[in-house]
Amino acid sequence: MNKNLIPENYNSQNLVSMWRNFIDWDKRRIGEGNFLVNQFHKHNVKKVFDAALGEGCDSIYLIKQGFDVTSNEIDKIFLNKALEYAKAENIELKITSLDWRELDKKLPEKFFDTVLCLGNSLSYLFTEKDQIDVLNQFRRILRDNGILIIDERNYQYILDNRKEILKGNFHYKGRYVYCGKEVHAYPIEISDQRVKMEYIDKRTGEKGYLILYPFKHGYMKNLLHKASFKSVEQFSDFKSGENINADFYQYVCIK
Ligand SMILES: C[S@@+](CC[C@H](N)C(=O)[O-])C[C@H]1O[C@@H](n2cnc3c(N)ncnc32)[C@H](O)[C@@H]1O
Fold first, then answer.
1. pTM for the full model?
2. Could you count the other beta carbons within 10 Å of the beta carbon of residue 92?
3. Which residues line ligand 1 (CB under 6 A)?
4. Class level of CATH domain 7-153+216-254
5. Every domain of the chain and the residues it spans
6. What is the pLDDT of residues 66-108, one digit of tens each?
7. Which atom of ligand 1 is nearest to the CA of 125?
8. How far is CA 105 from CA 13, 81, 140, in A?
9. What's the CA gap between 241 and 238, in Å, rounded?
């Protein structure tokens, strides 16, 4: 487990304890404006595979909306946090703890109506081979015409403005995906190969870190086509189309 993954991205108690405030669960829902449920209705989704559970924000919400959700998390600290939050809301999570690159060892083909890989998660992987292998793994467990919903940060903005950002001028609306007011994140190292993000809780000064792979403009779309999805629709901060000023891009990909 965790082979070729950056060890610094795992077992960070600090990061996990800040994550709920970093997201702001209510504001994430306001920001997406029913995007997920609308897509699910459009594509007749009932069975969901949330590939990156994190601390449970999306899985818990979707279970409450009546979907049949399987939630995957390989990081024990994130998983325990999600179980704690679910228990507090009297919700039972159906858990798997699989590395995305090995889903085929445990999960049947064509089993799910949708796979979610949200919160900028694919950028934990640093090689194109790993990224495409994982997209193929996701496609494999989708039924025909099922949908992968995946997102990414607007890394091109970060790459293009690295000098200004490293001086402290990181522009981020904070209205989509990661919306917390008390926990902020900004890049502290930027290269074409990796971006190191620092997360700080402004109330306590507590810090956490993640090292992520910065997808360039067009890279994700290209990956999705290489992974043979028959159609890919791009959204920018949940609005159809491409806006270079968006903070996050979402892709709805049909198998
Ligand atoms: C940035 S967190 C996002 C969590 C959540 N979806 C959210 O929106 O807050 C990234 C997640 O991807 C998971 N992850 C990263 N690489 C993985 C891999 N190779 N296999 C399975 N999970 C992985 C991490 O454990 C973590 O839960």
1. 0.96
2. 9
3. 5, 23, 52, 54, 57, 73-75, 78, 99-101, 118-121, 124
4. alpha beta
5. 7-153+216-254
6. 999 999 999 999 999 999 999 999 999 999 999 999 999 999 9
7. 16
8. 29, 26, 12
9. 9
